[in-house]
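Contributing new records

If you add data, match the layout below exactly. Sequence lines come first and carry their own label; structure lines follow with theirs. Keep one chain per record. Anything else will be rejected by the validation script.
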Amino acid sequence: MGNLKQVHIAVVGAGGVGRHFLTQCSQLLSKHPNASVVLISRSNRSLRVPSFNHRLSLSTWEQDLAASDSPACSPSEIIHFLSSAPGKCIVVDNTSNQDVAASYPEFLKNGISIVTPNKKAFSSDLKLWQSIFESAYPRNELGGLFYHESSVGACLPIISTLKDLVDTGDEIQKIEGVFSGTMSFLFNSFAPIEGKGGKWSDEVAKAKNAGYTEPDPRDDLNGADVARKLVILARIAGLPIKSTNSFPVQSLIPKELEQCTSGDEFLERLPEFDGEMEKVKAAAEKKQKVVRFVGSIDVVRREVKVGLEELEKSHPIAGLKGSDNIISFYTKRYGSNPLIVQGAGAGGEVTAMGVTADLIKVLQRIS
């Protein structure tokens, strides 16, 4: 291994994205013999090495974790465990847990780098955002690094592109696009450029059955996921947005269904409100337009918003297919022709790919 430093990796969250990540990590670490996974923790149990001379098997981790009687590790326990490790340490947080996110500054202050798709660390309280930056390298010379490309757009290079634009001195004027694979799938099916499209409730049910929505589709239709992504990008672009409550976010959940006790009850009653969405679609069609669920950040006007918009059929957003995301960066350098990032923006495997790619970047910098 020459002069390469030992790197010890703790993985928090091993279901969904975490499972895909560990599969990809197994292939990655075969090329990085100086790096090893030493801890895996999920909601109800954990697995760790007896000493840092060992490494967890990434071919049998699921069976080993299932057989473990050790409880899940808290962030403070993970910090304590890694504090005695020789070499460098990385925490890969594959959860959406607020408590883990709130602990990022402590990880960083202890020299532990972070790789994560967790939006909550970067879109909740502005003070947490500021604390993360203050605790990390280079502001803290002894701090860890952090990468979170997958917190916006799965594996699409959205955050890295925006950071490159900002760091090289370009002026961000506007960012707009479709930031949700779920919303993309729904509106491409409900209001296609050509053809009639299906009933709104039918398309929501299809999206759920195809795995594009959360178990309760209201968690997608309320617009909160898109709002979190916009907070992250707006802050990187220089707008100190306090939270998702700082700008208008349109929810597509009928008020009468907000109190449904389950996602199944919501889907059962949603057909009662198909007429409302049909009116929205028809109003756009009369103008030879289509309706889409769009997020936008107007940096010049310091305005952020999330909701339905009527778009010309020739607009790049209108022509999306499937569950693709599309994000347009309007800047001083690019003028009226925006820099566009487009592709699959949802799914466990592609999100894990973004996490793994960030891990590679950290390994290259600290090894």
